[in-house]
Amino acid sequence: MPTNKAAENALGTIGTVCWTVQLIPQIWYSYRTKSTKGLSEWLVLAWGIAGAFLGTYSVIKELNLPLILQPQLFGALSLVSWAQCQYYGRKRSKTVAITMLIVALAIFAGFEVGMIFAVNPAYLDGNERAVQFFGIFSTVLISGALLPQYYEIYKHKEVIGISLTFMAIDLLGGVFNDLSLAFASEFDVVAGVTYSLVVFLDAIVILCACILNPIAHRRRKTLAAAENSTAAGGPTVAPIPLESIRQSVSRDTEQEKDHELVSGGGDEKV
Q: Using CB atoms within 10 A as the burial measure, which of 131, 179, 186, 254 is most buried?
């Protein structure tokens, strides 16, 4: 694909906007429901950590400005969602949750700045091993972080606690970031793999929601109807196995034959 700096920056900006606002629906959803049940705290914590690694990688590799800003905002908002998990999920006090958020932001920001200054000189000298590690490790964190979320889906047999709007925007952000790299003078393979994995793994969560959530809804509806029937005093009749019915009919038939034989015998004696 030919190099197009305008298209690269435009698509990168759209991807950055998506990955900036993606967590806002999730944060708002958790705030509105006052619950993070079904949302894995390890997912958002791992994404917060991955933001520092991907941020280091994007700064040293001098990706376009939107792709440099994206991991910073992504990591920060992930940690905000993680703090909500501490407050709503683990029932920590608001002061403790906010303190944990501030400390985490300071630690990861300091880590990123320190790593940029530590790794950049070696990268400028032609040694790319260290910066490649940051890119690959961020990919592992971002993709592996969804495994605990898959467990939550398996445990609840549906997708709850996680905003599907958030997942859809996250998926679109990965698509636009991939397209941005396609118009760059040199396609960054590590960043491309990272964004593509996000698209694939987010799609799995959305697909699970489309399949499992309607099934769970029907299951709850059936259970509620049964409970209402019981509460109203309606009879609850247990299903009778077909074999039991056959045996009962057979016994009745034999008893009728015996009765006829006994009755016939009595008439002859008279």
A: 131
